[in-house]
């Protein structure tokens, strides 16, 4: 059983991953509250943007050439632009065709987009070779752990996104329109809310958040792996589920807890080795526990009688 001194570096790493879970969860919650879609293609879109940026940087793990350095200023913004354009395209041209379908059907539609993008990445890039997308970073020691500026940026960025999005949804006219559409799309349309325009804005905002997340994720993962990045969204769903796809603060803190628990299970060995082996199930375990807790007082009315 590792002591606190051994766990401290993993706690720091867990906070960084938890922050990325939190920002991803924020993007998912905002989009779901506006459109009723759980964007399961979030990770695939980000992975596509990361591969495009990697190509613009010269597509090499070696020291960047002068040509690659010249493209650096374009590569990182291009990542965000690719994610925003792909998300907006889906939101404007495909999502409206599923707008009146069941939420499950609308969400499964994004799985098709994810698989399509995975196929493009596998065909266009040699995914058997290692790839990296590193941001300029510095390392320093805090309490015996090595902390990078990328990890700090991830945590600070998560806090900023949650605060800004919360204020936007609660204090602006557009945010009010988004919440109105989430409550009743048809009534909002009758009241004069430009539903298609507001939904497009929600998709665009989700895409921008996606691009920013995947600027920070590859350095945390020590490389670009299409499968790992694509299905990162599954782990991020844990915090969103705990927040019931409504509360951004709860999503934020739940995501941090999930990230820390998942990371701190890594060094376990010996008789508790199974905890390290199954640490990736942390989001699912936390989600199940949260669902059981949330449902503990739910009642069903049958023939006028309440039954627990």
Descriptive report:
With 308 residues, this protein is mainly alpha-helical. The protein has one domain: Orthogonal Bundle (ABC transporter involved in vitamin B12 uptake, BtuC), CATH 1.10.3470. 70% of the residues lie in helices and 5% in strands. It contains 13 helices and four strands. It has helices at residues 4-35, 42-56, 66-94, 103-124, 149-171, 173-183, 185-190, 195-221, 226-230, 232-242, 248-264, 273-277, 282-294; strands at residues 139-142, 145-148, 300-302, 305-307. The strands form two sheets. Strands 1-2 form a two-stranded antiparallel sheet. It is globular, with a radius of gyration of 21 Å. Residues 60-64 have low confidence and may be disordered.
Could you give the topology of this structure?
Layout (H helix, E strand, L loop, with lengths): L3 H32 L6 H15 L9 H29 L8 H22 L14 E4 L2 E4 H23 L1 H11 L1 H6 L4 H27 L4 H5 L1 H11 L5 H17 L8 H5 L4 H13 L5 E3 L2 E3 L1
Antiparallel strand pairs: 1-2, 3-4
Helix pairs in contact: 1-5, 1-6, 1-8, 1-10, 1-11, 2-3, 2-4, 2-8, 3-8, 5-6, 5-8, 6-8, 10-11, 10-13
How many extended strands? 4
Count of helix runs: 13
> What is the percentage of strand-forming residues?
under 5%
CATH class: Mainly Alpha
Shape-level CATH architecture: Orthogonal Bundle
Strand order of the largest sheet: 1-2
Mean model confidence by pLDDT: 83
Tell me the series of helices and strands, N- to C-terminal: HHHHEEHHHHHHHHHEE
Low-confidence stretches: 60-64
For the terminal residues, how far apart are their CA atoms? 41 Å
Q: What name is given to the CATH topology? A: ABC transporter involved in vitamin B12 uptake, BtuC
Q: Helical percent range?
A: over 70%
Shape: globular
The radius of gyration is 21 Å
Overall tally of structural domains: 1
The structural class is mainly alpha
Report the sheet with the most strands, covering strand number, pairing sense and barrel closure. Answer: 2 strands, antiparallel
């Amino acid at each position: 059983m590792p002591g606190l001194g051994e766990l401290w570096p993993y706690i720091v790493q867990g906070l960084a991953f938890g922050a990325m879970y939190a920002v991803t969860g924020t993007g998912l919650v905002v989009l779901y509250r506006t459109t009723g879609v759980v964007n399961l293609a979030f990770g695939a879109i980000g992975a596509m943007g990361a591969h495009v940026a990697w190509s613009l940087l010269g597509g090499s793990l070696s020291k960047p050439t002068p040509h690659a350095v010249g493209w650096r200023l374009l590569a990182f913004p291009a990542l965000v632009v690719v994610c925003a354009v792909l998300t907006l395209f889906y939101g404007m041209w495909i999502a409206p065709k599923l707008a009146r379908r069941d939420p499950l059907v609308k969400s499964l539609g994004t799985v098709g987009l994810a698989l399509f993008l995975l196929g493009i990445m596998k065909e266009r890039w040699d995914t058997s070779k290692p790839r990296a997308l590193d941001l300029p970073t510095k390392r320093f020691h805090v309490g015996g752990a090595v902390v990078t500026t990328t990890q700090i940026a991830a945590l600070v960025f998560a806090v900023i996104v949650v605060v800004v999005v919360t204020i936007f949804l609660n204090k602006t006219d557009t945010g009010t329109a988004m919440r109105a559409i989430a409550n009743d799309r048809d009534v909002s349309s009758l009241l004069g809310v430009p539903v298609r325009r507001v939904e497009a804005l929600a998709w665009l905002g989700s895409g921008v958040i996606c691009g920013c997340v995947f600027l920070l994720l590859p350095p945390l993962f020590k490389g670009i792996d299409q499968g790992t990045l694509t299905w990162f969204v599954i782990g991020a769903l844990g915090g969103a589920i705990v927040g019931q796809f409504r509360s951004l603060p709860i999503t934020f803190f739940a995501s941090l807890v999930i990230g820390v628990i998942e990371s701190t299970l890594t060094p376990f060995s010996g008789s508790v080795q199974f905890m390290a082996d199954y640490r990736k199930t942390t989001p699912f375990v936390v989600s199940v526990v949260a669902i059981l807790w949330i449902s503990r007082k739910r009642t069903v009315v049958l023939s006028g009688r309440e039954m627990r």
